Amino acid sequence: MKSIISFQDVTKRFGALTVLDHFNFDVSPGEKVTLIGPSGSGKSTVLRILMTLEPFQEGVLELAGISYHQPHGHGPFRANERHLHKIRSNVGMVFQSFNLFPHMTVLRNIIEAPIAVLKMKREEAESRAVELLGMVGLLDKKDHYPSQLSGGQQQRVAIARALAMRPRVLLFDEPTSALDPQLVGEVLGVIRDLAHEHDLTMLLVTHEMRFAREVSDRVCFFDKGRIVEQGEPERFFSAPEQPRTREFLGSILNA
Asked: Is the pLDDT reported for residue 252 higher than 90?
């Protein structure tokens, strides 16, 4: 089966700092993959590159068969806006800080991009938004503004907004790290339902190890810009092979 995400020798530098060094990584359609590792290990950079928020200096990257190179161009991210738009139409991202528009209602936050980007008719966009708000348990909040919602509710709206674009790949960058502990469960519950009930390809960066064990088809441990160890969750968490993986899991689970 052809990968829906394929990194081939991708190198990403921030000045003199190399964050990803000839990085190789493939994800199959419908696969749920969790990326774990210490801060600065490169896992969130992988998501930001996929979302076209960060350029990269070397290598080849494809998503849903679309290259991140400009066709007939001279390197990564020599792409024009039309080509980047084609990539973005296949991928959505849920950030840790919600990123909702404060001056828009919940409903308008969700319908804005499908109307502007996908050229969806307003009636269709609203119908889709109502369906998604029902799915995340917030239909009664559709006319509220973000300031009237809890952090957990705002993140659930952000998930609905990402899904409104009908992405083939959905990225989650530490979606619960900005939440009070008592609100974490409601957001993880929505993501858990998505993982179990939908054929989306999902990449998650999280420090919630129990959750990663429940929802993932594969867990990858990052350290210093490379994948040190990966495997199916039961084996990965029960019997990690690499000393660095064991050290990291021990520090997280004993915290």
From this structure: no
